[in-house]
Specification:
The protein is mainly beta. The protein is 9% helix and 49% strand. The chain has eight helices and 38 strands. The strands form seven sheets. It has a 22-stranded antiparallel β-barrel. It has a six-stranded mixed beta sheet with strand order 1-2-7-8-5-6. A two-stranded antiparallel sheet has the order 3-4. A hairpin with a 2-residue loop joins strand 16 and strand 17. The two termini are 32 Å apart.
Length: 768
């Protein structure tokens, strides 16, 4: 409590004095508001790009709840499917984003060019954007629905890429901040101090803290972050940019559910974290029944579960996720000649993490029939990125190179929950020490080298052609740290392709209308971890597949038209993606048991679709944003064994978590003082099995926001705003996340997370 009080006091000290740095006259703020209203294009539909690209700016992120995931802001864009079980969209176990049928670990993510890995839970080669930067400090988000820029530092971008760019430091001294309070005892504080221009150097330091009780069950989700960034003008067109970002996140988990559990136990069913005696009772009954292989002393609890509970997997005691990250980097950029620009960037990331489950499948030594099971993470990675751009008149040549070395350690350990049937020994939000059993502990190393060469040829004022290729080499190794080898695979495996081409064409018709078309070939390199990739299977399984396993690849064809310069702007696009060597990781038993997954190459997948995005500003203060996407992503092959016998008939089936229809409509009003927003997001049903025998229904979810910002001669009021926000306005009950424990071939599975009900938040904001 003392530490928490200090954190709150420090953050408040940044927020409360903000008014002392307010502008001296109302005319400055009024002019800024007018300028913002004049710029209707807070959504930019990729003007000048040969592929489908959409950008949103910081103002769009402000339309959501303060501190919400930037993914919530981009779900209005064509083809974006984002889900989370919490109203802020930052609960990592539940966050899932897909583009054009490609799931999260098949996309690429960067922050200011620094690779964030595939952003999966338990990320082995990066970190989630909600930890990488405070949402208030994101300046621009760029979504490439089909394929990213050729030089994007990612080895997972089979499908699209999402690039985040931090805001630049302000050129004038200033302090800004906001404070939010809302449902489930949620409070969040954010404060930032900008130095202004100090003789060619400008910088800022920001801090944020959020604490929220879970909307169901018992537990809390907390995060503390600090960001610092500096930009130095070195003269002669040279600039040095450096940043340091820190994040400390602790989350109690929600329980994963199946459709059967939701129907039998209720939509609000969760871990029984408030009732340790009940957890001990259920685990003892499970042992008595032989459901968990745990041996217990003779007792009188019998073999009948209480109430509607029918198995030990119905009622886990608790689970949690802990992550502590440092991400730092620096970039030097400037002119090598009048027509040649270059940049070099270095970065370093370190992470300590722990994901926990209180499991009834392993007993504590000499005590209760439950134990504290962890998956522990340690990342130490560094990298260098370089780029050169030469303007040679009609031709613009670009060269990029990226190298990364990633040392990753992962372990599965078990810790004691004590011997008391009335009081647990520890909690899920505590880093554990002194395990009584280590199931496996492996060291993984990934060495990545990637380069890209591209030429943009401006054939005429109207016609531009781009072509180039990238090469990629990823070398992976796994070795046991325990003296006795564990049950998971070790060894070496590589993924290399030195010619992955990309080409595009852009034709400008005038009047704001452009035609574009592109072709891209991409490869998703393997990852080195115990919970994903080729080393996530057994040693015997790896020995069988290692010589024949091939990286997943895609050929993406897309084309479309961008239109509008006046009150209506938009884009319409069509695409075809051919996907080969699709690798499925099939879970073997409940996730809490932690059995090694079974890897299967299911051959080809084809994705066909169409996207439409529109933005209309009928009058200065009103904007209407709409999008629609149709997607048909299906498997082109059955799963066969070594002799060609079909073992799973999935040919023609829709891939899991790829809805056929996604639509979004947003209405926004801002006259410089009063502002309001309403957003409706619709999605059709989603399958969560490969055979399509299980699905969750479609839904329409509405969010809203309303507020007022003051413009006054008083420095205490100028730039001050108060706003109210509501998520899930009509209190819709639906399944948000699917696949939290993976996807099976058929049958119901404990891999669903229900969405948060209607939530209210009030924010007091002070901008520059």
């Amino acid at each position: 409590m003392r530490t928490l009080s200090i954190r709150i006091a420090l953050l408040a000290s940044a927020v409360l004095p903000a008014s002392a740095f307010a502008q001296q006259t109302a005319s400055v703020v009024t002019a800024a508001a007018d300028a913002a209203a004049d710029d209707a294009e807070i959504i930019v539909f990729g003007k000048g790009e040969v592929r489908q690209v959409t950008e949103i700016k910081a103002d769009d992120i402000k339309l959501t709840v303060a501190g919400a995931s930037p993914f919530i802001a981009i779900q209005k864009l064509p083809g974006v499917n984002f889900q989370s079980a919490d109203p802020f969209g930052v609960y990592e176990w539940s966050t899932r984003i897909t583009l054009r049928g490609f799931n999260q670990n098949q996309l690429g993510f960067t922050l200011d060019g620094v690779p964030l890995g595939d952003m999966s839970y338990g990320n082995t080669n990066g970190l989630h954007i909600s930890r990488a930067i405070i949402a208030d400090n994101i300046g621009t988000t760029r979504v490439s629905q089909g394929s990213g820029a050729l030089g994007t530092a990612s080895t997972s971008n089979l499908g699209g890429t999402i690039e985040f760019f931090s805001r630049a430091p302000q050129k004038e001294l200033g302090v800004a901040g906001n404070a939010t309070y809302g449902s489930n005892n949620t409070y969040r504080l954010f404060g930032t101090v900008d130095t202004g221009d100090l003789g060619g150097v400008s910088a800022y330091i920001s801090a944020a803290h959020i604490s929220a009780d879970k909307w169901k069950g018992f537990g809390v989700q907390r995060s503390t972050q600090v960001n610092a960034k500096a930009v130095a003008d070195l003269g002669s067109s040279a600039t040095l940019t450096a940043f340091v970002n820190f994040s400390d996140r602790k989350e109690n988990d929600y329980q994963d559910l199946s459709l059967g559990q939701i129907n039998r136990l209720g939509y609000n069913w969760d871990n029984i974290s408030n009732d340790w005696p009940l957890a001990v009772r259920i685990a003892t009954i499970a042992a008595n029944r032989g459901d968990t292989s745990v041996v217990v002393a003779p007792n009188t609890l019998g073999t009948t579960y209480p109430g509607a509970i029918t198995s030990a997997d119905d009622a886990y005691y608790d689970a949690g996720g802990l992550r502590r990250d440092w991400l730092t980097g620096a970039r030097l950029a400037g002119d090598l000649a009048s027509n040649v620009k270059a940049g070099v960037q270095a970065y370093y990331h370190t992470n300590k993490g722990q994901g926990s489950w209180i499991t009834p499948y392993v007993a504590s030594p000499g005590g209760v029939p439950l134990s504290f099971r962890t998956t522990e993470y340690s990342i130490s990675r560094w990298g260098v990125i370089g780029d050169i751009t030469a303007d040679l008149g009609a031709h613009t040549l670009r060269f990029n190179a990226w190298y990364e070395n990633n040392d990753f350690e992962q372990a599965r350990r078990f810790y004691s929950m004590g011997s008391s049937a009335t009081v647990p020994l520890t909690s899920a939000l505590t880093y554990q020490t002194n395990p009584f059993f280590t199931q496996w502990n492996n060291a993984y190393n990934s060495k990545t080298f990637q380069f890209a060469v591209q030429d943009q040829w401006d054939v005429s004022d109207a016609l531009s052609i781009s072509f180039g290729f990238k090469g990629q080499s990823v070398k992976l190794s796994a070795s046991p740290i325990n003296p006795v080898p564990g049950p998971l695979a070790t060894g070496k495996i590589d993924a290399e392709d030195l010619f992955l081409p990309q080409a595009g064409i852009l034709y400008t018709l005038g009047g704001g209308t452009e035609l574009f078309a592109s072709f891209t070939q991409n490869q998703r390199a393997f990852t080195a971890a115990a919970t994903s990739g080729p080393f996530a299977t057994s040693a015997a399984g790896f020995a069988v597949i290692s010589s024949s396993l091939r990286p997943e690849k895609t050929n993406t064809y897309e084309g479309g038209v961008r239109f509008g310069e006046g009150t209506v702007r938009g884009v319409a696009a069509l695409y075809l993606v051919d996907f080969s060597n699709r690798i499925l990781a099939i879970p073997q038993g409940p996730g809490i048991v932690g059995n090694a997954a079974l890897l299967s190459n299911v051959g080809k997948v084809r994705s066909l679709g169409a996207e439409l995005g529109l933005q209309w500003q009928p009058v200065k203060a009103v904007s209407v944003t709409a999008s629609y996407a149709y997607n048909d992503t299906t498997y082109r092959n059955d799963v066969v064994n070594g002799v060609g016998t079909v073992i799973q008939a999935i040919k023609g089936k829709t891939t899991p978590d790829s809805p056929n229809h996604i639509a979004n409509l947003e209405l926004a009003y801002d006259d410089g003082g009063f502002f309001a927003r309403a957003n409706a997001n619709a999605m059709s049903k989603r399958f969560f099995t490969y055979s399509n025998d299980q699905s969750v229904g479609g839904r329409v979810v509405v969010d809203g926001k309303i507020g007022y910002r003051f413009t006054s001669d008083s420095r205490w009021l100028n730039g001050l705003a108060v706003e109210g926000a509501v998520s899930n306005l009509f209190d819709r009950r639906y399944v948000a996340t699917i696949g939290s424990n993976g996807f099976g071939f058929s049958g119901d599975n404990q891999t669903l997370l229900t969405a948060a009900p209607r939530q209210f938040f009030v924010t007091l904001r002070k901008d520059y």
